[in-house]
Structures are given as structure tokens and as C-alpha cells.
Amino acid sequence: MALIVQKYGGTSVATPEKVIEAARQILAAQADGHQVVAVVSAMGGTTDRLLHLASSVSDQPDPAQLDALLSTGEAVSAALLSMALNRHGAASRSFSGAEAGILTDDRHGRATIQQVDPRRLMEDLRRGAIPVVAGFQGEAGVAGPCTTLGRGGSDTTGVALAAALGADHCEIVTDVAGVYTADPRKVTGARRHTTLLYEEMAELAVSGAKVLAADSVDYARTHGVDLKVRSNLTACGPETWVGYRRRCAAMAAGGGSWRPAGLGEVPAIAGVATRTGLVRCVLRRIAADHAVRILRGLAERELEVELRRYGNLGTEDASDLAITLPAESVEEARALLAEADRGARLDEVHWTSNLARLSVVGLGIGQLPGSPLRLLEALRSVGAARTDLLVTSNKLSVLTGESGLAEATQSVHDTFVHEPAVHRLPTPDLWATDHKELGASVPALAAAD
Ligand SMILES: Nc1ncnc2c1ncn2[C@@H]1O[C@H](COP(=O)(O)OP(=O)(O)O)[C@@H](O)[C@H]1O
Ligand SMILES: N[C@@H](CC(=O)OP(=O)(O)O)C(=O)O
């Protein structure tokens, strides 16, 4: 019937029992007449253990060797899953990313998929076999060295294979039943979405909702791959669909009429997400050429840095510069500042660590008057620190302290998610004709699970 790519995350292959359960679900899909390509992550905790192992041998491991090491985690789970499938009589073999035809650029540790040649997988599918692909990895050009795609990269492997194989959709199998309005393990009352648009999911993912890796959502959007996020406990339970086509279908089934949010109406909230482990660096009164040198240096090193503020607070020739970066990048950033500082005065540098960014995502939320104020109020009501408010059309975000983050997130979720939602959808070309015919509105949120 359909060709489906099923990606099993680290939590879904964490133990031999879970590997066997994954095999059972794959076989059930095959028995239903579907062709399945499985993609697996390393068994839960393995990648962190391998990183730790590397650091106990070298404080600066060669990036290519680090990739060679990290890719073994996925190789283990792929081989185990194939064995479990074989044991139940299914033809199956495991593939490394390279064997599966995944070609990347050569940026070790954060490679980008450039091309996928799925012919070997297709041969196996034609023979009725079930290919199991090690996620998170590829090769830098044909017969090039092994590369890895960055944390959470197996999601991108699944989506890229689904696109290359022309699969019906890509299933992301994980330890929750879909995408919620906040991490359901941390926020009481988080509600599962039945459908989400790529744009909503992409903002949630970059804001820290780790249920899907941000790169995989971008890949899915550009290649038109529908994503189904579901629990590893059952293939028939609740789920969340991410993509235009599925939202259209859900709208058709929902009845009612769709309309964009009017001026002053509350847009639908996709969710609240947090990122921890951030550090803020403020440089006071630095000269413009110096600021440019620093920003250029950060960009050249490809450090993940957010420019939070750059502005002149009164004096003509000097401004304040505020940046936020993940704690892992601080050492490199400090070295860069010291280098850029040669000959300049940099005595007023302030570092603040243990920060978190708390974001509220919703299409059009930034254009709604008063919504930034409500975010600040929600934080104030629980005594949470708040600084560097950022407002974009689809997101409000603020820096706060890591301590008290749970309470702050709950308060912001209570404030925004329990308000009545009106659906505000972009009209990509794909929809231009469809939505008029469908003329339906969908409750974006299922009843709380
Ligand atoms: N908005 C959200 N919806 C669902 N899960 C979320 C959300 N935000 C964070 N999560 C977390 O993401 C986790 C799943 O991601 P991850 O641990 O990377 O799983 P996997 O091992 O399957 O890749 C969930 O257990 C949940 O705690
Ligand atoms: N093993 C990699 C790749 C991955 O995607 O893992 P998971 O699916 O468990 O998030 C990581 O830990 O980042």
C-alpha cells in the first residue's frame, strides 16, 4: 500500500526489549501491506557516553575521528534491529548512512545532507526486505570520511530518506504521543496538537522543543514530507501530523469554516518551549570597528550566537553589545574576545551564565498588541527574572534564569495556552485553491491526553 519511513529515536531502542517492540511494530506495518524503511538512533544515552569516552582520551579530539566514534552508536542499534526482524522471519539488513546513499558536506559534527542516492535501499525494498538505516550519519562525498549531522540528526536522516524514496510520510517514533503545547513531562496541562504547520513546528524546534530536530523540520518543509510524530508504545494511538497536506485534510474532516485571525484576535498558540545552558555576554562601550571585529570572528567560527542588543546609549563613538551563546561555546568566544581585544580596552565585559530562553510560539503572535506585556506579566507573577525580550512575528522570547524555569514555563503556558485560539494560517501556493473548497476549521488541539 504505502511506503513509510519509521524513525525510532534513542528512547525507542534504549533496551533489547524496546528493540524487539520496534521490530514488532515494523512487522505489523508490513503485515498491513506497507513497505517500511527503518531509521534508528543510538540506544538512549549512548552518544553522551561516547562523547565522554572521547574526552577521557583527548581534550581536543580530531573531529573526523570523533565522527567515526559517534557513528558507531547508531551502527549498534541498526544491526540489533535487523537481527530482531530476522528472528521473526523477515528479510532485513542494516545500512550505515554511507551505504544508504547519504552524502553530506565535510563539516564534521554538524554536516548537512547534500544528496541522497536511495538505490540500494530500493533494491532491498523490491525484494520484500526491510532496510534498517543507521541515522545521524553520512559520508563526505562518495567514499569520503564518515560525518555526523549534529545532535538529533537521526530525524533528518528519516526525513531525507522519505524525500528521496518518495515515501508517503515519515514517522517519528518517540516516547511521547505527539507534539504538545509544551514538554508534557514538565508542564501540567500541556495539550497535544493533532496537526501543526511546518512553520509552527520549526519555530518550536529551534526554541528547544526537542521532540523534533529543527533541521529535520526545515528539510521536511522544503521537500514536502509529511511528518507523523507518535509514541513507541503503540502504532495506533494518538499522534501529531506536521505538514500542509495533513492540515488541509484535517480541516476538511473538521467541518466549519476557516478564516484568518482578525485584528486584535488571539492567534493559535503552537506552544511554549525552553532552551537551557545559555550564557550572556555584555560588552560595554566598545568602539564600532571593534564590535565589527568581534561579530565577524564569531561568524567565521560558526559559533551559534544570538545578537541580543547592539546600540548606542548616548555617547557617539561607543555602543553596548550583548550576545547570548550556548555554554559549550563560551571558551571559544572568550578566546576570540581576547584576540579581538588586543590593543583595545575591554575592561567592561560581563558574563552571566545559567540562563534559559523561554519562547511562546504562535503564527502572528508578535503582531498582537499586548502579547509581550502578557509574557512579562506571567513571568513577574512568579518572580522570574526576565531580560532581552525579543519579538518576531511568530515568536516572543525572553531570557530568564535556569533556576525557577519550571515555574516560569508553567505560568507562561497557563497564560497563553488556555486562551481561546483562532487559527491563523499562512496561505502557501499549495493551499491557495484548497482552503476555499475545504472551508473548514480544525481544533488544533486534541483533548488533553
Ligand atoms: N512540545 C513538546 N512536545 C512533545 N515532547 C516534547 C516537547 N518539548 C520537549 N519534548 C520532549 O521531547 C522528548 C522526545 O525527544 P527525545 O528525547 O529526543 O526523543 P528520541 O529519543 O525519540 O529522539 C519527550 O520525551 C519530551 O520530554
Ligand atoms: N544519537 C544522536 C542522534 C539522534 O537523533 O538521537 P535521538 O533520536 O535520540 O534524539 C543524538 O544523540 O543526538
Verbal overview:
36% of the residues lie in helices and 24% in strands. The chain is of the alpha/beta class and 449 residues long. The protein has an eight-stranded mixed β-sheet, with helices on both faces. The chain binds adenosine-5'-diphosphate and aspartyl phosphate (PHD). Aspartyl phosphate binds next to helix 5. One of its GO terms (molecular function) is aspartate kinase activity.
Strand order of the largest sheet: 3-6-2-1-9-11-12-10
| Topology, number of strands | 18
Helicity, as a percent range: 25-40%
Low-confidence sequence ranges: 255-261, 420-449
Largest sheet: 8 strands, mixed
Counted up, domains total 2
Category by helix and strand content: alpha/beta
The radius of gyration over CA amounts to: 23 Å
Overall shape: it is globular
**DSSP strand (E) fraction?**
15-25%
State the name of the first-level CATH class of the largest domain: Alpha Beta
Named at the architecture level, the CATH assignment of the largest domain is 3-Layer(aba) Sandwich
Per CATH, the superfamily of the largest domain is Acetylglutamate kinase-like
Cofactors, ions, other ligands: adenosine-5'-diphosphate, aspartyl phosphate
Tally of DSSP helical segments = 13
- Mean pLDDT, all residues: 87
Q: How far from one another are the termini?
A: 30 Å
